[in-house]
Design a protein that fits this description.
heterodimer, A: 553 residues, alpha/beta, TIM Barrel, 2 domains, five-stranded parallel β-sheet, 10 strands, globular, B: 142 residues, Rossmann fold, 17% strand
């Protein structure tokens, strides 16, 4: 007799079989430590109280679990946006043009660390860092070089920039204007997500509270003047890379999002004036099904937060739009070609999860910045997924899978519990000041490491299936000459500009920073008069102070 | 368990530091914890440390070992400066180890500066603990 329910099946069919042939492990868990049953059935969804209309609905309709677009990739596939930048503005300009020629559909600028933290290339602390992990942009001149010959009304540009986000946006706006392109025409994203910098990644400059004001100044300015600009990309990516689980990634990202929304509302903005321009950024890690469920849970959570917690009315405020990048930490220096397979699986999860845009990492990135050949393979990975695999032909293909729906529910429930804990601590900023997220992530990272070292967690080529490693040829090296040339360019700029105008515009910015007035117009004034990134940041450092690092581990 | 040096009975003291502007500190913090769990005394500097800050902290804390993590590619500019400062301050006997994203071709030049070992991605924390214990024994104690 066939079983009529899961319990019976377990008793009559599964258990006797497992008794004879034991399973590979005692417990099966996702990366977040959620227990995995051997099988999921309609009974699991019933037990969780899943209601199709309320919890899933149709794509393009609330709560958007199945997608924010009615037909997802059938109209247009996701934006293929490989993150790049190194050496100098001129070299990066060449790489951008190459990527656009190869069929990439959006640009994504990696800035070097001094630019991200607000130091000019000739600052003492910039020594050794200029042009290393990204491109140095110290002034309007550098931004114009970066976009030389690239029509700024045609490309959309994403900028991974946080503490100095409003400065780089102003460089971009003025560079576009000088190409004859208006603020209404440009489109793109600034990451502008300072909170996760205190939790992971570390490119903060000023303390959290004044930094929050700078974030919202961008929301305000863009709501009035730059309608096609995504004013923030609220990022789980870096927290996950630092060790967070999928549950923590969801929870900490949305807790930060809630903090930004509250700050903007307190500053007098209306939810539906800035809500539609909020965007997100998640990782795609190895656990394929957990990741797909995570993206689906994220859409549902955001829709509900915006509608129920903040009373948004405009559906666009409730639609979670996000960029995804495959997981840097999952790349291994050992047997680096294996990374191609990891990246493909991760990219697949991003597509099955309905990402709006995607960066696929390269096989050699545990060793160096990626070579041109490796980046091309990453782009080809995306193109094969988009145009050969068939996965982009149907909306939310895994929707309705008992397992996926069950995981989606579970991830949402656990993330909501975490958000409640952060609310109880006084919200994300207060939790950061208390070191909460850093501690939680540190614990997860250490546990992960212990699982790898005990062999409980397999990493192919690292703790299992190892072989003798051969030296890798053709790794990318940043041209050391680039940093010297950059410093010379900066010296030249300082000599040629009008010192009186520089001084006056920096003084004006200082006055504005001391009030509650929006800082963006004053920054634009500085940029037009060729003030440098370091000079503008120094004004803010003077008014707001400098953020200290944490010493706990 | 105390990881005592046999001759002095003092636990091995380690400064874990993040030189340069790179803020990716997952590896540094995991290693700091693993060293502490093995019985060593660990001081973590936090991120964004200049060579002067690191050598000063090493002197003040009287450490036996400095472990540094760099992922930004700035190692060839930053590490020679730190090794020079250590020499100038007569701290040649401090054992220096480095980890992060450091290309194979740069490893020997770094060792020529007096850096004891360069640990690449995938190194186990256990092997780092063992390496440090071994070096301290060779040196004749903590």
């Amino acid at each position: 007799m066939p079983s009529t329910d899961k319990k019976q099946w377990k008793r009559d069919t599964l258990d006797p079989s497992v008794k004879k042939f034991p399973e590979r492990r005692e417990n099966f868990q996702t990366d977040s430590g959620l227990n995995i049953d051997p099988l999921y059935s309609p009974e699991d969804l019933q037990a969780q109280g899943l209601d199709y209309d309320n919890d899933l609905g149709y794509p393009g309709e609330y709560p958007y679990t199945r997608g924010v677009q009615p037909n997802t990739y059938r109209g247009r596939v996701w934006t293929m946006r490989q993150y790049s930048g190194y050496g100098s503005a001129a070299e990066t300009n060449e790489r951008f043009r190459y990527l656009l020629d190869q069929g990439q559909t959006g640009l994504s600028i990696a800035f070097d660390l001094p630019t991200q933290i607000g130091y000019d290339s000739d600052h003492l602390l910039a020594k050794g860092e200029v042009g290393k992990v990204g491109v140095p942009i110290c002034s309007l001149v550098d931004m114009e070089t970066l976009f030389d010959g690239i029509p700024m009304d045609k490309v959309s540009t994403s900028m991974t920039i946080n503490a100095t986000a409003s400065l780089l946006l102003c460089f971009y706006i003025v560079a576009a204007r000088n190409q004859g392109v208006s603020e209404e025409q440009i489109s793109g994203t600034v990451q502008n997500d300072i909170l996760k910098e205190y939790i992971a990644r570390g490119t903060y400059a000023y303390p959290p509270r004044p930094s929050m004001r700078l974030v919202v100044d961008v929301f305000k300015y863009c709501a009035e003047n730059v309608p096609k600009w995504n004013t923030i990309s609220i990022s789980g990516y870096h927290m996950r890379e630092a060790g967070a689980t999928a549950v923590q990634e969801l929870a900490f990202t949305f807790a930060n999002a809630i903090a930004y929304v509250e700050q903007a509302l307190n500053a007098g903005l209306k939810i539906d004036d800035f809500g539609p321009r909020l965007s997100f950024f998640f990782v795609a890690q190895n656990n394929l099904f957990e990741e797909v469920a995570k993206f689906r849970a994220a859409r549902r959570m955001w829709a509900r937060i915006m509608k129920e917690r903040f009373g948004a009315k405009d559906p666009r405020s409730m639609m979670l739009r996000f960029h995804t990048q495959t997981a840097g930490v999952s790349l291994t220096a050992q047997q680096p070609d294996n990374n191609l397979i990891r990246c493909t699986i991760q990219a697949l999860s991003a597509i099955l999860g309905g990402s709006q845009s995607l960066h696929v990492n390269s096989r050699d990135e545990a060793l160096a910045l990626p070579s041109e050949d490796s980046v091309q393979l990453s782009l080809r990975t995306q193109q094969i997924l988009a145009f050969e695999s068939g996965v982009s032909d149907v909306v939310d293909p895994l929707g309705g899978s008992y397992y996926i729906e069950s995981l989606t529910n579970e991830l949402e429930a656990q993330a909501l519990e975490y958000i409640k804990r952060i609310d109880d601590l006084g919200g994300s900023v207060a939790a950061i000041e208390q070191g909460f997220q850093v501690r939680e992530i540190g614990d997860s990272a250490y546990m992960h490491r212990q699982e790898v070292e005990s062999g409980d967690r397999t990493i192919v080529g690292v703790n299992r299936f190892t072989t003798e490693e051969l030296p890798i040829e053709g790794l990318m090296r940043v041209n050391e000459e680039a940093a010297r040339v950059q410093v010379e360019r900066l010296e030249k700029l300082r000599k040629e500009r009008d010192d009186g105008k520089v001084k006056a515009s920096l003084e004006r910015l200082e006055q504005v920073a001391q009030t509650e007035e929006n800082t963006v117009p004053a920054i634009l004034g500085c940029v037009e008069n060729y003030c440098t990134l370091g000079e503008i940041s120094q004004v803010f450092r003077g008014v707001f102070g400098e953020q200290e690092g944490t010493l706990s581990f | 368990m105390q990881d005592n040096d046999s001759s002095t009975g003092r636990p091995i003291r380690v400064l874990v530091a993040k030189p340069g502007l790179d803020g990716h500190d997952r590896g540094a913090k995991v290693i700091a914890r693993a060293l502490r769990d093995s019985g060593m005394e660990v001081i973590y500097t936090g991120i964004r440390q200049s060579p002067q800050m690191i050598t000063q902290a090493a002197a003040q804390e009287d450490v036996d070992v400095i472990g540094m993590s760099i992922l930004s590619g700035a190692h060839l500019e930053i590490l020679p400066e730190i090794m020079k400062l250590l020499r100038e301050q007569g701290m040649d006997d401090v054992i220096v180890v480095v980890g992060g994203i450091i290309p194979e071709v740069d490893r020997q030049p770094l060792k020529d500066l007096g850096i004891s070992e360069v640990f690449g991605p995938g190194t186990t924390t256990g092997s780092i603990v063992e390496f440090i214990q071994e070096k301290i024994k060779e040196r004749g104690g903590a």
